[in-house]
């Protein structure tokens, strides 16, 4: 068989492999969005009409598949966040940032789970989470310096808000899908500088926060 004939046989195989990979990502997006990051990989393979071995050839780990499936959601979130950071009014930027975060969180249970957890050993997930934390710190610090947000709010408090909102989304997604907006704006009133009262419990340290997020990713 000539080199050109060999190449002609390879092209359809590559196309078939690309098509199977695409079907896996689409199926994973549906399943992760509906069932969270612990969705069954076997079910995803069935939905994509491929064998489970094919799934693992394309995505050796669950995290590899999750990152591929969530890529559009992560991009949507980061793009919306950058727009919020460009708002001149510090309080408006703070509100817009959190509203964008909660909106994307509410639209995808997999992204909801991803926001709440840390995945040690994965450079890509650490990079994404570090970028999110940088954005939160930027918008929060600017609002605090402007006197709009109480000075004792920390990154850990915002992550606590993300966690509580995630549980609320799980409970209300089919019965009251916009209930998260009421909860967000109730909490925003508590974050205003003029509403500040002394808090009896200090915020979590950075290590405590990181360890708690790792625990969520490893808990059964």
Automatic annotation (TrEMBL):
<dbReference type="GO" id="GO:0000976">
    <property type="term" value="F:transcription cis-regulatory region binding"/>
</dbReference>
<keyword id="KW-0238">DNA-binding</keyword>
<dbReference type="InterPro" id="IPR036271">
    <property type="entry name" value="Tet_transcr_reg_TetR-rel_C_sf"/>
</dbReference>
<protein>
    <submittedName>
        <fullName>Transcriptional regulator, TetR family</fullName>
    </submittedName>
</protein>
<keyword id="KW-0805">Transcription regulation</keyword>
<dbReference type="InterPro" id="IPR049445">
    <property type="entry name" value="TetR_SbtR-like_C"/>
</dbReference>
<dbReference type="Pfam" id="PF21597">
    <property type="entry name" value="TetR_C_43"/>
</dbReference>
<dbReference type="InterPro" id="IPR050109">
    <property type="entry name" value="HTH-type_TetR-like_transc_reg"/>
</dbReference>
<dbReference type="InterPro" id="IPR009057">
    <property type="entry name" value="Homeodomain-like_sf"/>
</dbReference>
<dbReference type="GO" id="GO:0003700">
    <property type="term" value="F:DNA-binding transcription factor activity"/>
</dbReference>
<feature type="domain" description="HTH tetR-type">
    <location>
        <begin position="18"/>
        <end position="77"/>
    </location>
</feature>
<keyword id="KW-0804">Transcription</keyword>
<dbReference type="Pfam" id="PF00440">
    <property type="entry name" value="TetR_N"/>
</dbReference>
<feature type="DNA-binding region" description="H-T-H motif">
    <location>
        <begin position="40"/>
        <end position="59"/>
    </location>
</feature>
<dbReference type="InterPro" id="IPR001647">
    <property type="entry name" value="HTH_TetR"/>
</dbReference>
């Amino acid at each position: 068989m000539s080199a050109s004939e060999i190449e002609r046989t390879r092209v359809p195989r590559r196309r078939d492999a690309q098509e199977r990979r695409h079907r896996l990502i689409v199926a994973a997006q549906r399943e992760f969005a509906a069932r969270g990051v612990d969705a069954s990989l076997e079910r995803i393979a069935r939905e994509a009409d491929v064998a489970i071995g094919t799934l693992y050839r394309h995505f050796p780990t669950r995290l590899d598949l999750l990152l591929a499936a969530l890529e559009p959601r992560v991009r949507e979130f980061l793009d919306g966040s950058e727009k919020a950071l460009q708002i001149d009014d510090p309080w408006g930027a703070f509100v817009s940032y959190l509203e964008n975060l909660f909106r994307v969180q509410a639209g995808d249970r997999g992204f909801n789970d991803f926001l709440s957890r840390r995945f040690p050993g994965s450079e890509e997930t650490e990079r994404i989470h570090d970028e999110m934390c940088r954005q939160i710190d930027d918008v929060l610090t600017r609002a605090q310096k402007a006197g709009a947000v109480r000075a004792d709010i920390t990154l850990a408090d915002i992550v606590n808000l993300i966690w509580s909102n995630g549980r609320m989304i799980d409970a209300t997604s089919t019965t009251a899908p916009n209930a998260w907006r009421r909860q967000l704006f109730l909490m925003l009133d508590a974050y205003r500088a003029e509403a500040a009262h002394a808090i009896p419990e200090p915020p979590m340290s950075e290590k405590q926060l990181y360890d708690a997020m790792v625990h969520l990713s490893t808990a059964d």
